[in-house]
Amino acid sequence: MVLPRLLKLVMVSVWLGSSFAQNVTQAQPAMWVQEKEAVSLLCSYDTSTVSYDLLWYKQPSSGEMDFLILQNSYSQQNATKGRYSVNLQKASKSIQLVISASQLGDSAVYFCALREGTVGGLLEGGAQKPRVCLRQPPAVGTKAGNGHPR
C-alpha cells in the first residue's frame, strides 16, 4: 500500500518597522497542491510610507528561520531567486510568493514581513494562517488524486 507523503505549508504574517501605521494579513484559505506543482501564497499589506521592503521567510520543523526573498517597493522588476519569485501589486497593496516545482522539503511555516525604510525591530507577530498541503504524485497502480491503491 502506498501512503502519500504530505507537505504542509503554513503561512504566518509579521511586520517590521518604526511605526504602527502598517499591517500585514493573509486571508487565503487552505489548499492542497500536488508535489512538483507551483504554489502561490498571497500577502496583503498596508503602510503609510512609500519606501518599504516585503520579505518572505520559511521556518521548517527544525526551527531555524530561513530568508527566502526580498522585494523593494522602489524596484521596477519583481524579485526572483531560484524556485521563488514574487509578484508585487502596489495598487492593491499585495504581494504573491510563488514556489515553482514544489518539493516535499518545502514543508514549513511561511512568514510574510513588511519593513519600512528604517527598521525599529519586530513590532508584533501574526497568527497562523492558511495551510497549503503538497503531496507526491500518485504512484503507479494508484488512482490519481487520492494515493490509495485501486
UniProtKB/TrEMBL annotation:
What the entry lists under SMART domains is as follows: IG, IGv
Instruction: Return one GO MF term.
Output: peptide antigen binding
Q: Where in the cell is it found?
A: Cell membrane
A Gene Ontology biological process term:
adaptive immune response
Principal location listed in the UniProt entry: membrane
* Signal peptide (UniProt feature, chain positions): 1-21
Instruction: Tell me which GO cellular component terms the UniProt record holds.
Output: T cell receptor complex
Where would I find the Ig-like domain in this sequence? 4-112
What single Pfam family name could you report for this chain, choosing any that match? V-set
> Organism classification, top ranks?
Eukaryota, Metazoa, Chordata, Craniata, Vertebrata
Identify the Gene3D superfamilies for this entry: Immunoglobulins (2.60.40.10)
Protein keywords = Adaptive immunity, Cell membrane, Disulfide bond, Immunity, Immunoglobulin domain, Membrane, Receptor, Signal, T cell receptor
Q: What is this protein called?
A: Ig-like domain-containing protein
